[in-house]
Amino acid sequence: MGHVDHGKTSLLDALRQTSLAAKEAGGITQHLGAFVVGMQSGASITFLDTPGHAAFSAMRARGAAVTDIVVLVVAADDGVMPQTLEAMSHAKAGNVPIVVAINKCDKPDANPERVKVQLAAEGLLLEEMGGDVQVVEVSAINEVGLDKLEDALLLQAELMDLKARVDGPAQAYVVEARLDKGRGPLATAIVKAGTLVCGQHVVVGAEWGRIRSIRDMARKVIAEARPAMPIEIEGLKGLPMAGDDIVVVESEERARMLSEGRKKKFEKDRLTKLEEERPKASEEEEEEDETKPERVEVPLIVKADVQGTVQAVTDAVKNLNSSQVFLKVIHAGVGPVSQSDIDMAQACGACIVGFNVRDPPSSIALAATQAKVKIKLHRVIYHLLEDIGNFIVEKAPGTLETQVAGEAQVLNIFELKGRSKSKGDDVKIAGCRVIDGRVTKSSTLRLLRSGEVVFEGSCASLKREKQDVEAVGKGNDCGLVIKDCFDFQVGDVIQCLVQVNRKPKFVSSESGAVRIEC
Ligand code: GDP
């Protein structure tokens, strides 16, 4: 774990180079989410690849349940950053010890000592300062220090006395799941305890199946999987979610039953959550303030490459919900945008969001254009959120706000008396100078005396050098009449009020966190 660009992927790649399994598979280029590095001593370390952005927090939080040790990657030139702290919180919440890898030590401006001081200041008890957190200086690019990192991890494992039960029914967790055209749902999983055997019936989250095949990370079919082995299992009836547990049951009947029960519970939980989310922004606020605009509901369909990302993107998108726009994910699934997605989007007026999925074939793209369905495809989560943020701003009704567009000071008062009835009533004209902004005829005027409002009304007349005008700018003199106002005094201030529709704003912080500000 660690801040974006601090070298997690590079470090994993460098470690993967030393992985036997990877070599056997001719260098696994495909993203598998997990791999094993075999050591000379016969020991092995299983690395879990956790994506880097804040939006993937949910996935990482789940990942931490499968992880025994967190490698915290901090760039030696950049030091501790927001996501470094976030990773530390996750590790702490999951009660998982940290081994620090200070990366990019090859860089001329690398300053590992400064990183150590920063980490210590954040409460990490480093070994060299009397604590028990090991720190290793590495360079992923030059492949320096990798052996030291591996040793540190093995030492940490030894200190923790990490042991797993090998015999008996397996307990395992899904790291990632995806849909393969030919093979159906595939789940990358890690066995935590026991042995998972091909042919067993399993319940995985709310899905179930009979394990048709188990493959190791070199894509070799194996009969059984033992603790700490990353594997890919085939034979599930549906797609599980990253973080789901895998439970072995004795029969197909029991697997079906358990899966149905869980599905019902998940659906109930989902509906309860949806209900909880809604009234927060509607009922309460409407009661408080009736002038607030109605909340606009924007339906979305989320598609992504693997189940874990689907979940992460859905969660991230929901975080953009505001009192003005409610993003309702009506469907979320794995795989490229399909015709059925377009049909559903057209039926519900939804927008389709695709993350890390292939561009749809031209026939689908054409169907989308004809159905006037918007498809937003992205490969960088921040870009996706920025795009949706702008979309929300566009859809938001905005709030009407009264703003002071200009201010004028009363310098003289003129009275027009004795007018005949046919010419209208007596009037009082305020001879003013505009001291700020603009005063416009079409707006409401507010009369202030010693800072207090004494009158508010529409503008009956605005003249400049005896000519009727629509607006008068700063520094100019003018004659003003406020409808039904006869109480001007020299020194009063007249404010010109305008109604503006203020739209919400999409705000992003340097750490990559985003939100909608209403
Ligand atoms: P991630 O976002 O944490 O996965 O970071 P990446 O692995 O994508 O690395 C971000 C950038 O830092 C890339 O341009 C890498 O080439 C560079 N980088 C990663 N590790 C090192 C290193 O040890 N030394 C140097 N000089 N650059 C590195």
From TrEMBL:
Keyword hit for Nucleotide-binding: yes
Keyword Transmembrane recorded: no
Region ranges (Disordered): 267-294
InterPro entries documented for this protein: EF-G-like_DII, IF2_II, P-loop_NTPase, Small_GTP-bd, T_Tr_GTP-bd_dom, TF_IF2_bacterial-like, TIF_IF2, TIF_IF2_dom3
Cell compartments where the protein resides: Mitochondrion
Protein name: Translation initiation factor IF-2, mitochondrial
Source taxon at top rank: Eukaryota
Family: Belongs to the TRAFAC class translation factor GTPase superfamily. Classic translation factor GTPase family. IF-2 subfamily.
SUPFAM superfamilies for this protein: Initiation factor IF2/eIF5b, domain 3, P-loop containing nucleoside triphosphate hydrolases, Translation proteins
Keyword tags: GTP-binding, Initiation factor, Mitochondrion, Nucleotide-binding, Protein biosynthesis, Transit peptide
